[in-house]
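fwd from M.: "can u put these together and see what the complex looks like"

so here's what she sent:
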Amino acid sequence: MGALYQIFIDPFVQMGTAPDLFVQTLWEGLVAGVLYALIALGFVLIFKASGVFNFAQGIMVVFAALTLVGLHSAGVPAFLALGLSIIVMFGLAFAVERVVLRPLVNQPDIILFMATFGLTYFLIGFGELVFGGDSKIMIAEELYLPKGAITFKALGGIVSLQKLDIAAAIIASIMVAGLSIFFSKTRIGRALRAVADSHRAALSVGISLEQIWVIVWFAAGLVALVTGIMWGARSEVSFALEIIALKALPVLILGGLTSVPGAIVGGLIIGIGEKLTEFYWGPLIGGGTDSWFAFVIALVFLLFRPQGLFGEKIIERV
Amino acid sequence: MLYREAGQFKTTYASDQAIFPILQDRIGLGLIIVAAYLIPLTHNDFLINAVMIPFLIFALASIGLNILTGYTGLLSLGTGAFMGVGAYACYKLTSYFPGVNIIILILCSGFFAAAVGVIFGLPSLRIKGFYLAIATLAAQFFLEWAFVRIPWLYNYNVSGAIEVPQRELLGIIVTGPRATAETRYLIVLTIVVAMTWVASNIVHGRIGRMWMAVRDMDIAAELMGIRLLPTKLLAFAVSSFYCGVAGAMLVFLWYGGAESTVFSINQSFFILFMVIIGGLGSLLGAFLGAALIYILPIVLRFVPPQLGLPLNAATVEHMTFMITGALIVLFLIAEPAGLARLWQIGKQKLRVWPFPY
């Protein structure tokens, strides 16, 4: 009885009696969710356009952030470093297309998936070799990212919102809006969707696969850069980010692999769910639940809706 | 010239269907096994303890993953966790039954891993491909968490690590810090050889055919009367059994003690690389992949000093990562079917040498 009470009643009583704490937890979950969603967005972009499940997205985030910080610490002014990082991400996209994707055209999905594993390892080694394995501090101030917190009294307590988190949420929404316009309104966006539907049909109407892939990997690289800046500003730039980036996978499952809004909604659900669980139920089972909560939710979700919330229904043709 | 099969006639179906139809192959395999058993005579502690024991253990884990991913086509990223289940199960078993033969306990711990594997394999009926890979990630992270947060699993140790107690067998110390590398090596070798033989029989028999049918096209397999759920769950069970035994051996016969970090996601990736590089759906590939991925970094560490390049340890470590990554991509481009296929091509060339075909 006592255990049931602790699981089913106590947390809700806590939520009711200390609404300010609840709102604070909710907000933290929301922010974490935005960042998961940003990483997931990079996955979705590449999966939509090339059918490649890009495992390297997490390390691309780290790599982009490292490049930026590394360039800045080498004496390059902040915004020039940002520009140069964008060029580096373009170079990476170009190299990936040329060296990894082009020779592997027409291979089964799992082989391409494995190739991105190889890419991950390569980038880990390369990043550590060039920039060193120690964690670094993101140049948030130099990029004019806001600092400090807004605290206000609400619900009988104090709620404090980090300005940086607000900025992250705004930038993420702008990026998502921009991407959806890019996908639906522009010529290249339409070409991207055509490639996603069928490589062969897209080729036959004269869409260059090579070009599309470079563009989409570059777009994913840009998303990675923004994610890296935001995440790096919140904590620090280190290779531990790479494991955290794996959290984007359950986000994808929830949202559906091919859906941009799905990535956002999935990210928010996972972020909020994870923080609330850890805060209210975590102590009952020893804490640290946020390492697996997202994955178990995704697992349960998969059993009932394999295509995710917004994904296209999986139809098997024989 | 040695590799000729002229004069070797097959007069029965059994000999025609043999796994090693060519006499030279059988002799070669016998020689390799004999040589493997003779390695302890060298008393080279580095070779035995740092190269051969881990190589064999990783090869066994690769066989386990290969059964799941290579033969049944179910991608799994939870290998490390399943190995962990084996290790922790063995630890608990030997603390409850200190008198029981440790080798039996190592093998028994595989059953615990198999049970856990079946539970996490349940979603495989509804989902496949990448989705399943993510589902197995749930197993990886949840179990890793359990290894840290459930103190019962490590007997409420303050350190949070499991330490291998000393166990004797016929008066010889086999586990614990005082066991010699030679003894541990011989036990590992025997278990690996025996379990490889069993795996070979499973995958070449009815069950293996069922797995491969499911891998090649599950809908067609279902239409032919193969029940998908039992087949896939069996693959999960057998695969996890192998991984569990490998994990138990990793801790009991190699490390001598471990924390949960040993069974992290990186371990899962490591084994997956071995399987992919070695060749999906090949037992030989599991050994070749384990050899390449495990022994390559060791070799790389020795090359720069030999060439007189003054590289520090960290740089070599990073270079190893880069080279491993580049090699994976290279191998996938050159031969997606892995080292096992290269070996087959080489063998074919040898058979017809000096003619091209």
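replying to her w this: Strands of chain B lie at 162-163, 167-169, 172-175, 257-258.
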